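#struct-help
A.M.: can someone run this one for me? Single chain, 262 residues.
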Amino acid sequence: MAEIAKASGDFRSKARAVNGVVAAARYSIVADLGTSNLSIQDELIVLEYCTTVANLEYRNKVWSYEYMALSRRMGELWERFCKSAWETPLRANVVRTHAPNFAEVMSEIHLRVEPSVPEEIKGDFNNLIGLIDPINMNEDEVFTIDGKLHVIDFKSGFGSNEKGNTLRLLAVGRAYKLYDPDVELLFLVRQKQNNNYLNRIRTSNLWGVFTGVDAYEKIDELTGSHISALRAEMIDFQNDLTPAFWQSLGSEIDEVKKYFDW
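D.P.: on it. Structure tokens below:
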């Protein structure tokens, strides 16, 4: 860290160097997992939190966080923390898979619907299908349990200004349901909150919405992890990050602390 801090280069290059050092340290620790009384899945969850603390602390030493950058970064790190439960799931028959691309979705819909379309309007039907703009089907976790497709969208926060994300989730949800009517769509939000946009997603009957503690319990159910208990026992940003880190946030500290409430 001392070498990176005193090296020439701008803040961004130093931040990238810090991230590389932290990633290398994490990689070396992964090789030694499996020696505690925890499962490897739970060890990876613990390691992800430790990596989060290291990322925040050391990056901040070469490029102090400002409010917007920190809020975005905390969202990315929380998602990584949750996704670590899928690295080596204890629950049987949990398998990560790829999201279908939009062409696959439209082909599936076309094959299912086109035979029942009257011959005289098949041309109009095909033209209508061609008018639909492509939808990005990629989501944060796409996996199967016993062959059943599951899709998760993680969000650290979902405030009262999320109109764009709401419309995207509804469009993606409809596309997935047309592609596979049995798919389970899950929206997991870190903050325990309620607003009109979140209620719109809840009442759409497309996505199952889980917030706060319920989101962690859902991860345990889906993967066989103990992320709920581990999170309650170990996460303590207030004491795990140094006083120097908190002091660097200056007058914004009270506003940004909400992002550390995992």
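A.M.: thanks! The chain has two domains: 1-90+226-262, 92-223.
D.P.: also worth noting: The longest strand covers residues 148-155.
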